[in-house]
Amino acid sequence: MTLPDVIAPRLNTGTALGKALISMFKSVEAELILEGAEPGAVKVIVFGGCAVHLYTNHRVSTDVDAEIYSARAPDRFLLQTLLAEVPEQFVDERSGRLMELNYDLQYNTGFGPLHEEYWERSLPLEEFPIESALHLHIAAPIDIVISKLGRATDQDVGDIMALLRSGFILTTELRRLALQAIDMYVGNKEPPRSVLTNILHDYLETIDGEAP
Predict the structure, then answer these.
(1) What number of CA atoms fall less than 13 Å from residue 122's CA on the CB side?
(2) What is the mean pLDDT of residues 85-101?
(3) CA 6 to CA 24: how far, in whole Å?
(4) Alpha carbon distance 44, 179 (integer Å)
C-alpha cells in the first residue's frame, strides 16, 4: 500500500464563508485600533467547521468555534460579547441561501483532546499581519482532527475524513500526537482512543482500496 505524500496545508479565505469570517474579526481589529492596542494584543485561534471549510470547502458552517487569548481577561470577555452580538451575513455559493455566521460563546477547547503544541502549528491569516493588534490563526488540520475525537458526532467524523483526504495529514503523525493529547485529556480517555483507531482503520482501508 502506498500512501499519498503529505502536502503543506493551504487556506482559502476567498469563499463567502471565508470572507464573512475575515469581516467578523476585522470589526474587532478596528475596535482594538481605536483603543490603541499594541500589535498582537489579542490572539485568536479558530477550530471547528469554519476551519475545516477553509482547508477543504467540505461543508459550510454557521458557527465560529474559537479561543481568544488576551493579557487581560476582561478584554477577552468583552471581545467575545462583541463578536456574538453582530452575526456576519453571507450567501452560500452552493445553495444560494442567505446565512448568518455566529460566534459560539459556548465553545471551549476543553471539549476534546488537544495537543499542547497546537498554537505553534496553527496557520496565521495574512489578512491580519504581524503589526495588527489582532492575530487570527487557524488551527492546523492535525489539531482540528484531534480536537474532534472527543465528541465524534457524525459531522465530526465527516470533517475528520475530509481533512485526511485533503492530504495535509500524515497518519502516523496523527496517531502519535493524538495519543499524546489523549494522555493529557481530563475526560474519559477510552472513547477518543477508540474513535482514533476506528477512523484510521477506515481511512487506511479506503486508501488501500484505491491503490492500483
Answers:
(1) 24
(2) 94
(3) 32
(4) 25
8 A C-beta contact, residue 149 and residue 196:
yes
* DSSP per residue, 106-151: T--GGGS---TTHHHH-EE-TTS-TTSSEEEEE--HHHHHHHTTTT
pLDDT value for 3: 47
Q: Which residues are CB-contacts of 113 (< 8 A; sequence separation ≥ 6)? A: 146, 147, 149, 150, 178, 181, 182, 184, 185, 187, 192
Q: Tell me which of 179 and 108 has the higher pLDDT.
A: 179
Mean pLDDT of 61-80: 88
Grid coordinates belonging to 192: 477518543
Residue 17 backbone phi and psi in degrees, to 5: -65, -45
- What residue type is assigned to position 1 of the chain? M
Rounded to an integer, what distance in angstroms lies between the CA atom of residue 133 and that of residue 152?
Answer: 35
The one-letter amino acid at 143: D
CB of 80 closer than 8 Å to CB of 65: no
pLDDT tens digits for range 131-142 = 999 999 999 999
For residue 156, pLDDT beyond 60: yes
Q: Which residue has the cell 472527543?
A: 150
In 3-state terms, what secondary structure has residue 15?
A: coil
